[in-house]
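Any chance you could type out a protein's amino acid sequence plus the matching backbone structure tokens because I've never seen that pairing?

——
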Amino acid sequence: MTSPFGDLSSVDAMGNPVEASGRPSGLGYWIGGLLIAGGIAVGIAWGVINGLGFSDAIDDFERVPVGQIGTVDLDEGDYVVYAERGGGEPLSNFINGIRMRPAGEGEGDEVDFEDYTSEFTYDLGGRTGRAQFTFAIEDGGEYRVRVDDGPGTTATTAAFGPSVASDLVTAIVGAFVIAIGGIVLGIILIVVTGIRRRKWRQRSWMDGAGGTAYGNQPGVWNPGAAAAPPGAWGAPAPPGYDAPPPPGGGYPPPPG
């Protein structure tokens, strides 16, 4: 059965497969196409999988309605407070103030909040959110939270969870890097394969022509060199042909 990639019998000095005729194989076209298609497919899969992880992380946030006192269960670590509401422009979400302290008897010191120094928003499943505060928990456990609803508050819920900005960046940037990488590598392989095969065709044409098709000497344009006119090369001159006079006009030299 003939291979779709040609009769591959050996490899060249660079390790590239060649056909039995010596022509570089067209296998590079197939591999290049697979790299392009595979890069796009894997990039999309990466974005979908990591995007779902990003969505799940937001769904797992602890939440307390604005204007109420609630309890959240947090492990030790760094957290972000997200101002949320159902729909709308996330950049306009705002919480006027928030207080948090350990729950239970004796209670501890209040947790210190700091403003979120950059801008991060999300819009998922009819829920919009904006990162507004950051805080750290040194001792994991339950914490009582009071979310103020004073003037300027536009959010309806305070969500507590880790920073997910890096998860979103990983999903988007990773997908583009994988897809573009596969496309670039595939195009390079296709172009290189085409160049190698074209050079082989050019060499084969030159070797097959041998330089004799267009003249008596290889590579020299000499048309009609063998077609000499009648009477040339010592043949009798035709009737009525007047030969040119010899040097000096055919007269003897003047006397000295």
About this structure: The longest strand covers residues 127-137. Residues 36 and 205 are 33 Å apart (CA to CA). The chain has a mean pLDDT of 79. Helices lie at 27-59, 165-209.
